[in-house]
Specification:
By secondary structure, this protein is of the alpha+beta class. It is built from three helices and nine strands. Helix content is 19%, strand content 34%.
């Protein structure tokens, strides 16, 4: 499957709410996920949402496992999540540096819920229901935001905590998701 171009911040599709998936296990959905996977891996991303490659459907993928861009990050299992719903577990927020393939070369300090439950379906329509925290929770929130037309800079509280990666982060500081 081909590596797709990733839309950049400012593209109108990235500001739209994506449509729910209605057909599971279809050749079209399988091809979309394969393209997303190839694109995410080619760019060493931690996740990717379908709107980032120009498809306005509620599909995200994510995984962190021995990624050179996140050497100290906890592992996050490979997941294809279709029609996700997020439910915060408590009010506790945690600040963390994030980047995005649609906002290349930039990082920002973003508050996210520390713990949450997410549910949806896999590519075949089988239910997924997990409670997660920390980095895993951050990655899921970042990717699902894309499905609602939200890019991480919108969530930054203080724009002094937003800039080019090499200018705002000390060497070796952990970042997420991208």
């Amino acid at each position: 499957m081909p590596v797709r171009s990733v839309l950049r911040m400012g593209h109108p599709l990235l500001r739209q709410v994506a449509s729910p998936v209605t057909g599971f296990g279809t050749p079209e959905l399988r091809a979309l996920v394969a393209d997303m996977d190839d694109t995410m891996r080619a760019l060493d991303g931690a996740g990717l949402a379908a709107p980032q490659i120009g498809i306005s459907l509620r599909v995200v993928i994510f995984e962190v496992s021995r990624n050179p861009r996140y050497p100290d990050a906890e592992e996050v299992p490979y997941t294809v999540l279709v029609n996700p719903v997020l439910e915060p577990l408590g009010d506790e927020l945690e600040d963390g540096w994030e980047g995005c393939l649609s906002v290349p070369g930039m990082r920002g300090l973003v508050p996210r819920y520390k713990r949450l439950r997410y549910h949806g379906s896999d590519i075949e329509g089988r239910p997924i229901d997990r409670e997660v925290e920390g980095f895993h929770a951050r990655v899921v929130q970042h990717e699902v935001d894309h499905l609602d037309g939200v890019l991480y800079p919108i969530r930054i509280r203080d724009l002094r905590d937003f800039g080019f990666t090499d200018a705002v982060l000390p060497s070796g500081a952990p970042t997420a998701p991208d």
